[in-house]
């Protein structure tokens, strides 16, 4: 299903006057405070968040899954769904594939299809946390860390194969997340599994094209509950440093123990030039994969405050960041949820752009804790949604993406096209 700009404009027309009033009111206030509103709107218009292929279908838990119908059953349909999202918000201009769920049979045809939706291919993701149908060895007790060299080699070869598919599609990054770890004390030798993982990653790293990056993701627990081989940002940084300059850390917002100061992690990694990118979601207890910003919007803002500071630092040695949503939907329409997540990400970004960095620096140097808090919370409490809507209008997107999605009855149309029982490939 494609949504033409003329259709979006038709739905925008009744909202245009009210949006302009809201924008003018906010713009006057921000300009009087010394903010360049046009520049902020342009940054918001330029900001792109990749959509993962596996988030387009209904997720679930180990207790159950409740498909909503009309889910994409092929890579072509997944691209079409991301193209639909991008048409509505003009901020979802990339798709991230997971191999072997999304192996392109004809890379040129897939690239042409993505191009017709104005989409690029973000990082490709390997999968060594599941055994596949024709797999010779099992990852039950680990993959790149396994005590058996034959198992490790199979995992190495898979990652190299993923790079091959990514090259064919124009991707320039490989994301490695490992489920490797142990659920019982004594099950693994901590030093051995780390060294096995490092040596395995070194073999994969050698196959990276010159312009590529490797993102090393971490997670404190799950699916193993006693130890994970890459449990935290320190271990990820250690591996990335040992691998080389093309290896970077990847932060998933759900991959932290409760109350972890993620914004501090972000600041230090950017200072060291080792932050590769983000997987956005939200959580209450663990890796809940909830809609971005639905639980901890202030933390998301604080994270973006550090990101903006790092990105705007002229002395920063950190490479451009890769942004992606990583979520699993069991209750919501996945496409509506993704539209909400992109909106939440851009709200936090816009709020972070409003922070008066000079005033904050003075407050910090003077140990004025109250002033520092006021500066941050004044930015956070600003309703920046008129700025986001203005950026969408500028880009030819919908003022109200979720509203247009519902008025067009997109899910109903997808069910008509694909059936009531279609289920997306992947988890």
Helix content: 40-55%
Largest sheet: 6 strands, parallel
- The percentage of residues in β strands lies in 5-15%
Number of helices: 15
Structural class: alpha/beta
Average pLDDT reading: 96
Total strands: the figure is: 11
How far apart lie the N and C ends? 24 Å
Radius of gyration: 22 Å
Strands of the widest sheet, in order across it, are 4-5-7-9-10-11
Describe this structure in words.
By secondary structure, the protein is of the alpha/beta class. Helices cover 48% and strands 9% of the residues. Helix 8 links the parallel strand 9 and strand 10. The protein is globular, with a radius of gyration of 22 Å. The model has no long low-confidence stretch (mean pLDDT 96).
What topology emerges from the helices and strands here?
Elements: H1 5-32, H2 37-46, E1 51-52, H3 75-89, E2 94-96, H4 107-116, E3 120-121, E4 124-125, H5 149-169, E5 173-176, E6 181-182, H6 190-205, E7 213-217, E8 227-228, H7 233-243, E9 247-252, H8 262-271, E10 275-280, H9 297-311, E11 322-325, H10 334-353, H11 357-365, H12 369-380, H13 385-395, H14 401-407, H15 410-418
Parallel strand pairs: 1-2, 2-3, 4-5, 5-7, 7-9, 9-10, 10-11
Antiparallel strand pairs: 6-8
List keywords for this structure.
427 residues; alpha/beta; 6-stranded parallel β-sheet; 15 helices; globular
Give a short synopsis of this structure.
This protein is an alpha/beta fold and 427 residues long. Helix content is 48%, strand content 9%.
């Amino acid at each position: 299903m494609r949504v033409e700009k003329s259709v979006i404009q038709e739905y925008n027309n009744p909202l245009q006057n009210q949006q302009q009033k809201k924008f003018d009111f906010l713009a006057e206030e921000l300009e009087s405070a010394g903010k360049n509103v046009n520049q902020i709107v342009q940054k918001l218009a330029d900001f792109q968040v990749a959509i993962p292929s596996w988030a387009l279908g209904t997720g679930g838990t180990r207790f159950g899954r409740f498909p909503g119908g009309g889910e994409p059953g092929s890579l072509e349909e997944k691209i079409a769904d991301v193209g639909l999202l991008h048409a509505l918000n003009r901020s979802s201009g990339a798709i991230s594939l997971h191999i072997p769920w999304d192996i392109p049979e004809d890379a040129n045809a897939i690239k042409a299809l993505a191009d017709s939706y104005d989409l690029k291919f973000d990082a490709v993701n390997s999968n060594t946390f599941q055994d596949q149908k024709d797999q010779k060895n099992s990852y039950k007790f680990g993959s790149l860390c396994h005590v058996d060299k034959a198992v490790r080699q199979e995992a190495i070869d898979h990652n190299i194969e993923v790079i091959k598919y990514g090259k064919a599609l124009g991707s320039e990054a490989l994301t490695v997340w490992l489920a490797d770890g142990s659920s019982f004390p004594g099950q693994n030798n901590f030093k051995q599994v780390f060294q096995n993982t490092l040596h395995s990653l070194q073999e994969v790293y050698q196959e990276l094209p010159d312009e590529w990056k490797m993102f090393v993701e971490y997670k404190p627990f799950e699916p193993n509950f006693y130890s994970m081989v890459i449990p935290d940002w320190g271990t990820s940084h250690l591996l990335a440093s040992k691998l080389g300059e093309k290896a970077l850390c990847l932060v998933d917002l759900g991959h932290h123990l409760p109350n972890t100061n993620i914004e501090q992690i972000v600041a230090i990694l950017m200072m060291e030039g080792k932050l590769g990118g983000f997987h956005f979601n939200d959580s209450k207890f663990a890796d809940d994969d909830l809609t971005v910003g639905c639980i901890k919007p202030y933390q998301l803002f604080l994270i973006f405050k550090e990101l903006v500071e790092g990105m705007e630092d002229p002395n920063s040695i950190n490479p451009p960041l890769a942004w992606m949503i990583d979520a699993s939907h069991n209750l919501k329409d996945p496409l509506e949820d993704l539209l909400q997540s992109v909106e939440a990400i851009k709200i936090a970004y816009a709020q972070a752009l409003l922070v008066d960095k000079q005033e904050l620096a003075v407050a910090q140097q003077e140990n004025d804790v109250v002033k520092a808090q006021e500066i941050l919370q004044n930015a956070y409490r600003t309703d920046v949604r008129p700025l986001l809507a203005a950026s969408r209008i500028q880009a030819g997107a919908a003022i109200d993406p979720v509203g247009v999605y519902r008025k067009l009855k997109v899910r109903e149309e997808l069910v008509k096209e694909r059936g009531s029982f279609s289920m997306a490939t992947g988890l």
